[in-house]
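Good morning,

Attaching, inline, the backbone tokens for the sequence recovery test we're adding to the shared suite. The designed sequence is right after.
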């Protein structure tokens, strides 16, 4: 007779050591997962610090540019401006934590430069040439946790068991405000472009920008014109409350009277063909801007440039009936057209537009013996408040040679 021996007891005895071995493996996998999760969270926190700090620094840089003195028509960005932006970066970094420790961002972790086309991701280079004639528009921040920074590398929970108890962290972010050739907009879809129905001769405008003090300047076209420095305009002004008597280093000039041709003083229609408008229509454009729906040629007009002039019809004169409308926009940021040449007379006048300029009206009098509309150059940006409610919307074509009086959209680009 063959005896059968049961193996059931042997199977039961083999499970215990197998379970012990597998438990070690499961615990190791769990520990690895915990460390990986913690590491990913810490990397995300590091990136958040870099993003917030870069945006803060860029915002400070843009705000300082708006109040910078104009020298030769260019806002002068100084080392002090860069220092203020750097301190803003470090202050915002300190408000955030990486793995429960505050971020340690130092001066050498903050870079400034110019990005001609921040939307072109084939290059991350920050151009530092041409400064301060060409202001910096980009801030890059590097955030680290390593042996060179307070807090050291990130300590893992279980990595030490396999010889990787710490990990270095490094993340960067680059924030910019776009600069380039401006293309203002007409009013559309509830958005305003801030355009006024006025034009100023481009050579004379450049002479006003280049003036280094009150007096008489001679433009490249040979015209002599007086410039003054009798008003100070707050950088964020959206009303007459932001305009004060005093000097601010930015010259004022007379938008009117400035005879351009017989029977016309620089008032324009946003049309490439002859149009007749009443004073009430011009008042509405002054107060509210031109609507794209009312001016079919507007999209082509706002693309005017020195290499692509656009002819527009002039409207005869500036009447006393416009004074209230002009008074209502004192202190607001607005955009006027610049023209190179003019032909015709009265309502048959045509101006060749070659660009646009940001201004603030500081004073107006269209009834007295010294009728005038006086303007001051101003630095404005995309979505700058016009009157406390509406904002200016404009487009910029990125360029290595920007119009420094316009600041485009802000944001993270790297």
């Amino acid at each position: 007779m063959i005896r059968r021996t049961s193996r059931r007891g042997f199977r039961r005895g083999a499970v215990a050591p197998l379970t012990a071995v597998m438990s070690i493996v499961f615990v190791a996998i769990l520990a690895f997962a915990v460390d990986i999760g913690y590491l990913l969270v810490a990397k995300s926190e590091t990136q958040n610090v870099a993003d917030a700090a870069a945006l803060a620094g860029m915002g400070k840089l843009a705000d300082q540019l708006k109040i910078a003195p104009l020298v030769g028509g260019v806002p002068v960005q100084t080392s002090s401006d860069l220092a203020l932006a750097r301190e803003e970066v470090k202050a915002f970094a300190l408000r955030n934590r990486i793995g429960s420790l505050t971020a340690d961002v130092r001066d050498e972790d903050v870079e400034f430069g110019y990005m001609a086309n921040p939307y072109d991701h084939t290059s991350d280079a920050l151009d530092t040439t041409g400064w301060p004639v060409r202001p910096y528009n980009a801030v890059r921040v590097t955030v680290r946790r390593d042996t060179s920074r307070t807090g050291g590398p990130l300590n893992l929970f279980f990595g030490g068991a396999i010889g990787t108890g710490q990990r270095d962290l490094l993340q960067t972010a680059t924030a910019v405000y776009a600069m380039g050739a401006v293309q203002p907009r007409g009013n559309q879809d509830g958005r305003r472009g801030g355009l006024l129905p006025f034009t100023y001769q481009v050579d004379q405008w450049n002479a006003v920008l280049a003036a280094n003090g009150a007096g008489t300047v001679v433009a490249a076209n040979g015209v002599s014109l007086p410039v003054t420095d009798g008003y100070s305009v707050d950088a964020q002004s959206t009303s007459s409350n932001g305009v004060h008597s005093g000097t601010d280093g930015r010259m004022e000039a007379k938008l009117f009277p400035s005879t351009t041709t017989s029977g016309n003083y620089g008032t324009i229609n946003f049309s490439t063909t002859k149009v007749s408008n009443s004073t009430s229509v011009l008042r509405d454009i002054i107060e509210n801007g031109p609507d794209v729906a009312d001016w079919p040629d507007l999209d082509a007009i706002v693309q005017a440039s020195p290499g692509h002039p656009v002819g527009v019809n002039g409207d005869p004169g500036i009447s006393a009936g416009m004074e209230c409308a002009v008074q209502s926009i004192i202190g607001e940021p607005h955009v006027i057209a610049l023209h190179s040449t003019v032909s015709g007379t009265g309502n048959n006048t045509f101006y060749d537009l070659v660009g646009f300029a940001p201004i603030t009206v500081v004073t107006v009098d269209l009834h007295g013996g010294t009728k005038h509309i006086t303007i001051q150059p101003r630095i404005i940006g995309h979505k700058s408040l016009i009157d406390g409610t509406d904002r200016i919307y404009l487009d910029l074509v990125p360029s290595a040679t920007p119009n420094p009086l316009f600041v485009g959209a802000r944001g993270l680009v790297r």
